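tool=predict chain=A
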Amino acid sequence: MYSRFQLAKKYVQYYLSASNGKGHGIHSPFVFNFIIKVLNDKKKYSAYSLIELQRKALLKNSNLIEVEDFGAGSSIIKSNKRMVSAIASTSLKSKKYAQLLFRIVNYYQPATIVELGTSFGITSSYLASGNVKGQVYTCEGSSSIAAIAQNNFTKFGLQNIHLIKGDFASTLSPLLKKLKEVDLAFVDGHHQKKSTLDYFNLLLDHSKSSSILIFDDIHWSAGMEEAWAAIKAHSSVTLTIDLFFIGIVFINPNFKIPQHFSIRF
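tool=predict ok
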């Protein structure tokens, strides 16, 4: 992965070159609507406060748990016996981006949502709250982390989340065969080029004309940047939005000419 200095330098480059995030100069009506109605939606949804209270509780939780790590691993936490608060501080998607995922689901109303990387279920809960009539299938490799996530889902009263435990390599393919089609996917695990592209291709096989695929940490390392470049270049990808910390892919044949945007957020 990139060092903090390298990442900061890349962020400055992104910020200086990206669109201003207000919709000025954006000629695509679809992207303009995304900026105005999703990216810049300032409404305080009721789900926000409840989920953020639980995030605060996790950040104060000093319990030690055994963690199985199937992915690229943590650059900060090396031991497999970890404190809940330490995991929460490094693995949970920030409030800003987690709430953006809620708004994406709330606006586009995907019926079938797949998440790779449940962690403690904060992002899963935002995804599920965005469309309570939809179904969220979230995959987590570590059984101890999954147990805490399940407790959170129960606490929130969310009954539209299905937690799948086990390594993505063995759980994702059978899940997708069962679901047949995926409306939205959030890939937040195995931050490696090959794994990311493998998941992209699997999800693409089960996408439809309105599917949305979201990839976390697309600038986390040289390998992740290469994966993002390959995804953007794929013939099925007609629109992408780079928000630096996440990349959003729209599979929509109505966009005849591929368009790629970097937008400040």
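The first strand starts at residue 64 and ends at 66. The beta strands are 64-66, 81-83, 112-116, 135-140, 161-165, 184-187, 212-216, 239-242, 246-250, 259-262.
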